[in-house]
Amino acid sequence: MLQTQQKNHQVVFFKHFTRKSYAAFNSLKREVRICTLAACMLTYAYGESKTYEPGMLRHAEADREDITLDAAEVTGTRVPITFAETAQSISVITREDIERAKVQTVNDLLKLCAGVDVRQRGNFGVQTDVSIGGGTFDQIAILLNGININNPQTGHLTADFPVSVSDIERIEIYDGTSARIFGSQALNGAINIITRIQNADNAEARLNGGSYGTLGAGGSLNLASQHYLNRISADYLRSDGATNNSAFSKAHAFYQGQYITPELKLSWQGGLSSQRYDANTFYSATYPNQWEAGSRWTASVKAVTNGRIHLAPSLSWIRSYDHFQLIKDTHTGENFHRNDVYTFGITAYTEWSLGRTAFGGELRSESILSSNLGRPLQEDQYVKVENQDEIYYTHRDNRTNISYFLEHALLLKNFSLTAGVMANRNTAVNERFSFYPGVETSYRPNSHVKLFASWGMSMRLPTFTDLYYKSPTQEGNVGLKPEKTMTVKAGGEYNHNGFFFGLNGIYRHGSNMIDWVMREPNDIYHSTQFTLDGFELSARTSLNFPQLMQCRTFIDRIKAEYTYIHQSRNDDQVVYKSNYALEYLRHKATFDLDHRVIGPIEATWQVSWQERMGGYVQTDGTVKSYSPYALLNLKLRYDAPRYGLYLSLENLTNHTYYDYGSIPQPGFTLMAGCRVSLNL
Q1: What is the pLDDT of residue 434?
Q2: In Å, how far from its chain's centre is CA 38?
Q3: What is the C-alpha to C-alpha distance for residues 326 and 280, in angstroms, rounded to an integer?
Q4: Would you give the distance in Å from CA 633 to the centre of its chain?
Q5: How far is Cα of residue 111 from the mean position of the Cα atoms in its chain?
Q6: E strands, 444-571, in order
Q7: What is the spatial distance between Cα 472 and Cα 469, in angstroms, rounded to a whole number?
Q8: How many other C-beta atoms are found inside a 10 Å radius of the C-beta of residue 145?
Q9: What is the structure's pLDDT at 32?
Q10: What is the largest CA-CA distance in the chain?
Q11: Which DSSP helix (H) or strand (E) runs through 633?
Q12: Residue 499: which residues within 8 A CB-CB, separation 6 or more?
C-alpha cells in the first residue's frame, strides 16, 4: 500500500500562502510541499530570513500579513533586499552545519569554510587569528549581530568571542571589500555572527570533556512573552593543554533580548568573555614560557522602525583588558592594556518608484590606556591598573572615526544594481574626508542561475600595536599610513533540486599594506608597508540527497569547497622573514560527508587540506617553510528533542602540524558531550 501511495499521490508546489478560508492548507486533502527555500540554498543564504526572525510568527498574526517564504533579507547591504535580488555571493555556516560540526569554539566553526584562514597558537581556540582572502587578522571586520567588535589594540584579540557555539544561529562570511557596508575595518571582508533566540520558555544544560584534561560546562535559558524575547547563556572550558605550557581556562556569558511590535523592533545584547592561558612560544621562539590573560565586556542596543522612512539607530560600547608576560610570573616584557570603543550609527532607508535608497552615518571612538602603547603621559597623569599594586598605565591614545554613506538599489525582474559611497574621516589621519565607492550587479536568467560582479574600495587604520608596540622582539612604526584596497569580484551560482555549484574570482590591489618583517636573520620584527596584488579563486558545491531523490537516503549531504590564492609583493625592500602578510594560505580544501549510521545516530566525516606560504624561525635562527597537511575528523551524534549525545574524534591520523610558528597543534583529540533540554 505504501508503494501505491508513493506512485499515485500528487504534490502541490507553491511559493506563497495565506490564512484565508479558501487557502491551500484549508482546501486540499493531500500533501502540500513548501519548496521555495531549498536546503542547499539555505546552506549559502545569508539574509535576515523571515523564517529565522524570532517572534515573526506572532508579529504576522498581529497584523495579518501574508508571509512570502522566499523573501530572505540580505544583511550585507545598507538597503534591505532579498536573497534573490542580491548581487553578492556569501558563505554561510548554518545552524544545521553547527549541529553537525560538534566543535567547542566559534573559531573551530570558521574552519569549515575554505575561504577563511584560522591560525591557532593554542588549542580549542586560544589566541586565534582569523582572516579572509589572503589578508591578515587585522584586515576584516568581526560583527556580533551586526555590531562591530573589532579590537583597536590588535586583531589578535578580536576573535575572543563572548558567545558559545550553542548561542549561534548562523555565521555569514563576506569575502571582498565591504567598507561601504560594515565600516572601514572591513578591508578584505567581514564575518557576522548571528545569535539565536527562541520564541519559547525553555532551558538547556551542557557538559563535555575529553583529551588533555579538557572539561567544559554551560547552560542557557529562553523566556518569551507577548512582545518580549530573552535569552541568557554561560559557558566554561578548561584544559591542561596538548603541549608544554599550553594550559588554559576560558569563560563567557551572554544576554540578548528583543521587543517586537508591528511598528518597532528593538534588540539589545551584553556579553562578557575572559580567558587565561600559558602561551608557549606564542610571539617568539626565544621565549617559551609566555603567559597572557584578557577579558572583554560588550553592550549594545539597536532598533528598526516601520513607516515610509525606516530608521535603524544603534549604540554600542566595548571594553577590553589585556595582560601579557613575556616570561610567566615575572615583570619581564610585561604589558597592561585597556581599550574602550564607543559607536553610534543611524541608517534611514525608503522604497520608491526607482528602487530603494539608504543613507546614514556612524561615529566611532577608539581609545587605549597602556603601559606600552600610545603617547607617553606625564607622571601626574598616570592611571592605576585595575587589581594591581603599584602598576600604572603610562601611555594613552585615542582617535575618532566619522563616516557617512549613501546607497541605492535598482531592482528589476532579472537584474539588480546596488551602488553607493562611504565618506570617511579619522582624527588620527587628517581633517579631510576620503571617499570609498562600490557597486554590485547581478543577472538572473532564470530561477536557478545567478551571475554577479562587483567593484569597491576600502581602507583600514593601523592598530595601536602596529603604531607603538616595542618589546625585545618587535618594534612598531608611528609613521604608518592607512591601508587601502581596490577589489574586483565576479562569479556565478547554480542551485536546483538539491544541487549547488558556485564559482568566484577576486582581484585585489592594496597600497600601504602593513606587515611585520625581519630584514636580516638576527633582526627583530619591524612594522612596515608595501604594495600588494592578489588573486583569489574559490569553488564550492553540495549535494542534498533527500531533496535530490525526494526520499530519505543513507547519505544525507556531500559538500566540498576549495580556495586558491596568489599574492605578489611590489617593493624593493629586503625582507628576510614576513610574519603575517605573506604567510597566507595558497590552497585550502574542505570536504564534508553526512550520513546515517544506525537508527537516529548520524555521522559527519570532515576532511581538510591546506598549504601555507612562508615559514617560521626555528630556535637556531633558520627559517623553515610550512608543510602542507591534511586532517581527518569524525563526529557522531544522537539528537532528540529533550537530550542529545555526541562523540568528536579529531585528527584521527594523529598528525603533527603547525598553524603558527613552531607551535605544534594537538594530535588525536577525543571529546564527548551531552545536553539536556527542558520546556518551562
Answers
A1: 92
A2: 24
A3: 10
A4: 22
A5: 11
A6: 449-460, 474-475, 483-496, 499-518, 525-544, 555-570
A7: 10
A8: 20
A9: 42
A10: 89
A11: strand 629-639
A12: 40, 541, 542, 543, 544, 548
pLDDT for 549: 87
Question: pLDDT tens digits, residue range 430-454?
Answer: 878 999 999 999 999 998 999 999 9
Instruction: Report helix, strand or coil for 651.
Output: coil
Task: Give dist(CA 473, CA 516) in Å, integer.
Answer: 11
How far is residue 134's CA from residue 455's CA, in Å, rounded to a whole number?
18
Distance, C-alpha 648 to centroid of its chain: 23
Residue 517: beta bridge partners? 526, 578
**What's the pTM value of the predicted model, to 2 decimals?**
0.88
> CB within 8 A of 520, min separation 6: which ones?
574, 576
Residue 626, all three cell numbers? 610550512
Q: Is 665 within 8 Å of 659 (Cβ atoms)? A: yes
The C-alpha cell 533586499 sits at 81
C-alpha cell of 620? 637556531
pLDDT at 82: 67
Cα separation, 4 vs 511, in Å, equals 67
Report pLDDT digits (tens) over 322-356.
999 989 999 988 999 999 999 999 999 999 888 89
Residues facing residue 566 across a β-bridge = 535
The dihedral formed by the CA atoms of 142, 250, 675 and 49, expressed in degrees to the nearest 10? -10
Integer Cα distance of 125 and 111 in angstroms: 11
Q: Tell me which fold the domain 36-679 belongs to.
A: Maltoporin; Chain A (2.40.170)
pLDDT attached to residue 5: 38
pLDDT digits over 492-509, tens only?
Answer: 999 999 999 999 999 999
Query: Do β-strands 140-144 and 189-195 pair in parallel, antiparallel, or remain unpaired?
Result: parallel
Residue 152: phi and psi, rounded to 5, are -70, -15
Q: Which residues pair with 499 in a beta bridge?
A: 496, 543
Give the model confidence (pLDDT) of 389-436 as tens digits. 889 999 999 999 999 999 999 988 899 999 999 999 999 988 789 999
Q: Judge whether 610 and 591 are in contact, CB under 8 Å.
A: no
- What is the mean pLDDT of the segment spanning 272-288? 84
Q: Which residues pair with 434 in a beta bridge?
A: 424
pLDDT for res 6: 39
**Cα distances (Å, whole numbers) of residue 483 to 15, 318, 339, 430, 569:** 46, 24, 22, 15, 14
| Domain boundaries along the sequence of the chain | 1-35, 36-679
Query: Which helix H or strand E contains 468, and what residues bound it?
Result: helix 464-468
Q: Is the dihedral of CA 143, 147, 148, 153 positive or negative?
A: negative
Taking residues 201-212, what's their average pLDDT?
96
Compute the distance between CA of residue 541 and CA of residue 575 in angstroms, rounded to an integer: 39
Tell me the C-alpha distance between 120 and 110, whole Å: 12
Q: Average pLDDT, stretch 237-244? A: 89
What whole-number distance in Å separates Cα of residue 413 and Cα of residue 676?
Answer: 47
Measured between alpha carbons, how far is 582 from 507 in angstroms, rounded to an integer?
Answer: 16
